[in-house]
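User: Predict Sorbitol dehydrogenase's structure from this.
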Amino acid sequence: MKALVKTELGYGHLEVLDRTEQKPLDQQVKIEVKYAGICGTDLHTFEGHYKVNAPVTLGHEFSGEIVEVGKDVTAFKVGDRVTSETTFYVCNECRYCKEKDYNLCNYRKGLGTQVDGGFAKYVIAREESVHRLPDNVSYQSAAMTEPLACAYHAVSKINVNVGDVAVVMGPGPIGLLVAQVLKSKGAIVVITGLDSDEKRLEKAKALKMDHVVNLQQSNLEEKVKAITDGYGADIVMECSGAVPAAKQGLSLLRKKGAYGQVGIFKTAEIPFDMEKVIQKELTIVGSRSQKPADWEPSLQLMSQGLVDAEALVTEEFYIDEWDKAYQHLKSGDGIKALLKPLS
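Assistant:
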């Protein structure tokens, strides 16, 4: 079968190759991929900034149909419409595994990074990681379950009350999904971006976010004060990985507010105003990827129409059109691109 493979580390080295089809082992299923989403980490992998176990087929956001099951599989059958968590292997012995926090296991191996992923016609997943799709969730939407689960995981770290004012810094795919999850919990959502985010800010308006703010054209702090009677935001979710956004986020929060860091910074060590954290008694939380408990709620949010993941898809390409997909996303015109397998 044809697969989009990162053949070695460094810039580029992404090729469509013939890969041998694998059969599922005892507790595994074989999925015929319908769509696979391009994640920011796939872009970083292509550019040489993110290390994977090359050679490896990329793609960890996907949906498809089960075409074969291992002999010990009991929960799924051929023909089931499914998606899968990225987790392919964990140690099952550490305290994090025992609590189903697989995202924190030191020995975890993920699809599309350490094990062949979904940029191919078929992918092998372990039964425990697979989730059946609600009938009204399309394959396109389902290919977005993984980033939505990441967004759901981030929001679950913070107590969200109906009427809370929540500022989302960064209108990329994760920011737009975080904003929708917050909205589903009854928050008043303010989402921010720059001139270069014009298309994404337009999408935020189409998704009926309460306030959409271009930071280069409006004063965000004045806006937040106006809608909070001068107190400041209850919640800030930083989804851009931009240092100025992190700094501003702390200033926007009210006393006893909550700050969630979702975006990844280019440099791990950044200046942070701990005086604000202390004087305001702020709650600061980080969020890494997703875990099993985040997947079924994410599928239900799509099924109930509370999150429109498919609305973020701006283009579809075949796996041999990587260069077009890459340019689409890097140009600023694209929000999310899906790849389709070759026959």
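Residues 151-286 form a domain with the Rossmann fold fold (CATH 3.40.50.720).
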